[in-house]
Design brief:
mainly alpha
Length: 122
């Protein structure tokens, strides 16, 4: 298992949206429609994750390691795992689609819910 330091570093690498960018994104129809619903609440797992990421970013804007809680790090671990797994799949899409086509994919919308905007890495 990765150390907390590794998880924090990777989280800060993968999450390339600011708290305000992510919060604004989460209020769009594209954000609420992307992803899997874990229960009857209507909110997708990724959308809920995005809200948690916004909270983490807002509570610790300086990214001071000591200020992260155990719950923060547990969620960061999920974000790192999700982003790593989905970005591996995304690489193939980048080779065959334009930036506009990528912006419209379910994969891009889902990654943005998890705090990573793949269009920023083009």
């Amino acid at each position: 298992m990765k150390s907390e330091q590794e998880v924090i570093a990777e989280f800060n690498q993968y999450v390339n949206m600011s708290a305000s960018e992510l919060e604004e994104w989460l209020h769009t129809e594209s954000a609420t429609g992307a992803g899997w619903r874990a229960d009857e609440s209507g909110e997708t797992v990724g959308h809920e994750s995005g809200r948690k990421i916004v909270d983490i970013l807002k509570r610790n804007p300086s990214k001071t390691v000591e200020k992260y809680t155990e719950d923060d790090i547990a969620h960061m671990r999920k974000v790192v795992s999700y982003c790593k797994r989905h970005l591996a799949q995304e690489e193939k899409l980048k080779e065959s689609k334009s930036a506009q086509e990528l912006a419209d994919t379910k994969s891009t919308r889902s990654l943005k819910n998890w705090g990573h905007d793949p269009l920023k890495t083009l």
